[in-house]
């Protein structure tokens, strides 16, 4: 999974460079321009720290919330094989969340603070998870389209200028390919099934295609923080560039599956060497960003319940450690 | 609000004969759970045969702002490198 810069109130991130020490700032700018990695204890502008903390923590939250729609289907997987695969994928998503929280923590915000912000509804996560998973083909579509879009975005992030984020992305990318392939494999199998099963695949495609394109974030002409993020080498490619790459890569895969892309304007443009595609409904995107997605409330409720119901495990582990520490103290 | 568990740095030996390398970090209440969390987080795909965990608070690190001065002696002693010495061609394989 992945995230994009969603918080429009974050526009201030671009502004306060003026209060930084000009010599330090110039040295920092030169380092990132020279493709050097910035490490946790290095000097960095506050706006760089803030932007990264927000982006990495949103990315982490997306991994964690992303486990929820898939978890819903664990007990309804059609075979033991598919159940084992889905369980392994969900465990990976949890792992990706942990890599990312750790990377974000190196910037000076604790995991506890980030998780609290998520549970309080103050932190964003990818808009894609506020759509419902209605049939088993949705699990395949998430792997193929959602993780496919994530890969498009995460591959360039392996060279993002902040070292801990880049290293987390290297790990994530190694594991993400399995996620996309198992999803496509699941759909291929359903397409060999009954007409009803094939209809389920097409239905999943119809519902996930446009939200997947929205995952790349607002269009470049309405993405005010993009320029700064690209200058600081946080991002390497713009939202629209990545979106186009995704469309170009995915359309032939849909044809191979034998399903149609729900976009009457989609067509190959020989001159550009890319697919042209129809207009994205950005009103829908911004509504979902504002928390008006079809299952936004349900997701946060499930997330908070998972946290609260797991409290006894955390408390037991802490009590055990306290008792061990007391024993060590008594023995010393 | 509960207090989060302390942070541990995780080092993984990929296979026999290689050194342990830093992989990342985990939160855990004690060393034993830190090892288990490290196993689940960093070695799901045969990434390692051995794990070390150490409390992040116990790591002592050099100051990146002092890196220039700290590592300068290594840069200024060219005579430490074999290529500093110009030997006659007659001396082979040295």
UniProtKB/TrEMBL annotation, chain A:
Cellular component aspect of the GO annotation: cytosol
GO terms of biological process kind: phenylacetate catabolic process
Magnesium as UniProt keyword: no
The keyword Transcription regulation is annotated on this UniProt entry: no
Superkingdom of origin organism: Bacteria
Keywords for this protein: Oxidoreductase
One example GO MF annotation: phenylacetyl-CoA 1,2-epoxidase activity
Enzyme Commission (EC) number: 1.14.13.149
Official protein name in the record: Ring-1,2-phenylacetyl-CoA epoxidase subunit PaaA
Organism of this sequence: Sphingobium jiangsuense
Automatic annotation (TrEMBL), chain B:
InterPro entries: PaaB, PaaB_sf
Pfam family, one: PaaB
Protein name (database record): Ring-1,2-phenylacetyl-CoA epoxidase subunit PaaB
Taxonomic lineage from the root: Bacteria, Pseudomonadati, Pseudomonadota, Alphaproteobacteria, Sphingomonadales
């Amino acid at each position: 999974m992945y995230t994009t810069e969603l918080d429009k109130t974050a526009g201030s991130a671009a502004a306060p460079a003026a209060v930084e020490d000009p010599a330090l700032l110039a040295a920092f700018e030169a380092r990132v321009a020279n493709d050097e990695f910035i490490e946790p204890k290095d000097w960095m502008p506050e706006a760089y720290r803030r932007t990264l903390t927000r982006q990495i923590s949103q990315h982490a939250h997306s991994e964690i919330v992303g486990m929820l729609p898939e978890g819903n289907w664990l007990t309804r997987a059609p075979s033991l094989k598919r159940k084992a695969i889905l369980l392994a994928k969900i465990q990976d998503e949890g792992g990706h969340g942990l890599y990312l929280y750790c990377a974000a923590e190196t910037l000076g915000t604790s995991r506890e603070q980030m998780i609290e912000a998520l549970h309080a509804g103050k932190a964003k996560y990818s808009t894609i998870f506020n759509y419902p998973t209605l049939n088993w083909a949705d699990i395949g579509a998430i792997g193929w389209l959602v993780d496919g879009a994530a890969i498009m975005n995460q591959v360039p992030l392996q060279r993002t200028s902040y070292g801990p984020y880049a290293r987390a992305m290297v790990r994530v990318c190694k594991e993400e390919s399995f996620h996309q392939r198992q999803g496509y494999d699941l759909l291929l199998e359903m397409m060999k099934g009954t007409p009803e099963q094939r209809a389920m695949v097409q239905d999943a495609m119809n519902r996930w295609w446009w939200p997947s394109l929205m995952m790349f974030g607002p269009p470049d002409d309405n993405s005010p923080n993009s320029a700064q993020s690209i200058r600081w080498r946080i991002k390497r490619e713009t939202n629209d560039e990545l979106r186009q790459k995704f469309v170009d890569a995915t359309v032939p895969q849909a044809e191979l599956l034998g399903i149609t892309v729900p976009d009457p304007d989609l067509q190959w443009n020989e001159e550009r060497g890319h697919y042209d595609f129809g207009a994205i409904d950005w009103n829908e995107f911004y509504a979902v960003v504002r928390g008006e997605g079809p299952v936004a409330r349900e997701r946060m409720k499930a997330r908070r319940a998972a946290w609260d119901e797991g409290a006894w495990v955390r408390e037991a582990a802490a009590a055990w450690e306290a008792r061990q520490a007391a024993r060590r103290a008594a023995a010393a | 609000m509960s207090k989060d568990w302390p942070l541990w740095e995780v080092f993984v030996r990929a296979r026999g004969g290689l050194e342990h390398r830093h992989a990342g970090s985990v939160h855990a209440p004690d060393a034993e759970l830190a090892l288990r969390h490290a196993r689940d987080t960093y070695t799901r795909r045969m990434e390692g045969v051995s794990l070390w965990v150490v409390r992040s608070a116990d790591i002592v690190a050099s100051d990146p702002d002092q890196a220039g001065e700290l590592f300068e002696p290594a840069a200024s002693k060219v005579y430490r490198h074999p290529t500093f010495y110009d030997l006659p061609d007659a001396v082979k394989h040295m």
